[in-house]
Amino acid sequence: MTIRSAARWLITAFLLTAPMAAQGYFEDTIQHVGGALSAGLGGGEFGSIYQTMMESFIGLVSLVGIVMIVRAGLVLTVSQDEGQFEKTKKTIMAVSAALILINLAPRVAEAYLAYKGGGPDIITTELKGLLSFFETLAAIAAVIFIIVSGIRAVISYGGEDGLAHLKRTIFGVGAGVLLIATKLLIVDAVVIERTPGKILSIISTFVKVLLGFGAFVATIVLIWAGLLMIVNLGKDEQYTRAKNLVVRVAIGLIVILISLALVQFLIS
């Protein structure tokens, strides 16, 4: 399936809305000329009947699209053609886009019709669901990439390529997951709740954990430096080095405690 085919599906989805829009715009004229239709398939309106007829094909077309994707995968598996991968990739992308458009068509039709309310809310809900769908796929792909890279590193034990590839994969996947999580926080703060409270809470928690860990490490180093001072009594050089370490760690610990107090004050 090519981009032209996907465009045909988009035009078909648009045509789905035309009769229903006509029903909404010219409802008074239709009722005056022809009277109300009898209740039956899809309700008593021409647009509703047309919508029901078109939506009845969604399951069949979705099944055909899934079969096309499976067929493309099987052809890629058994084919020896070097250009088959690009053909399969284009087919899967085009069919996936068509399936998404076809299944979104009824909801887009409801939002598009002028005589129905809540159109923006419908579009917003569908966009959130579509983003969640792609986020789930991204999470699954991230796990698969990490597993494959780990297996590759184990198989190529002793070589640098496998370990380097594993490091690059973990770094890339981690950056991608971080971007997705950041996007979720921004969307939640700007679109859904429209308040930065959750972002500030997460930042505050992260900073507190980071500063708390720093304070823990500084305390351990301070205890170790104190022990060195006790052990090295009478040894001027070692004693002086331990004393300087105690002073530096004490200053760092004070700065960490002040930072914690400032963070708590700013957030609250």
Give a structural overview.
The protein has 268 residues and is mostly helical. The protein has 9 helices and no strands. The protein has helices spanning 3-25, 27-34, 46-55, 58-78, 84-112, 119-155, 160-192, 197-231, 236-267. α1 runs antiparallel to α3 (46-55) and α5 (84-112) packs antiparallel against α6. The longest helix is centred in the middle third of the chain and has 37 residues, at 119-155. The chain crosses the membrane at residues 57-79, 91-109, 129-148, 169-192, 212-233, 245-267. Residues 1-24 form the signal peptide. InterPro entries: T4SS_pilin.
| Overall pLDDT | 71
Q: Helical residue percent? A: over 70%
Major sheet size, sense and barrel closure: none
Unreliable stretches: 32-43
**Cα-to-Cα separation, first versus last residue:** 57 Å
Name the helix and strand elements from N-terminus to C-terminus, one letter apiece: HHHHHHHHH
User: What would you call the structural class?
Assistant: mainly alpha
Tally of individual domains = 3
**Tally of individual helices:** 9
Q: Given the C-alpha coordinates, what overall shape results?
A: elongated
Residues in β-strands, percent? under 5%
The total strand number stands at 0
Instruction: Evaluate the radius of gyration.
Output: 31 Å
How is this structure best summarized?
The protein is built from 9 helices and no strands. With 268 residues, it is mainly α. Helix 1 packs antiparallel against helix 3 and helix 1 runs parallel beside helix 5 (84-112).
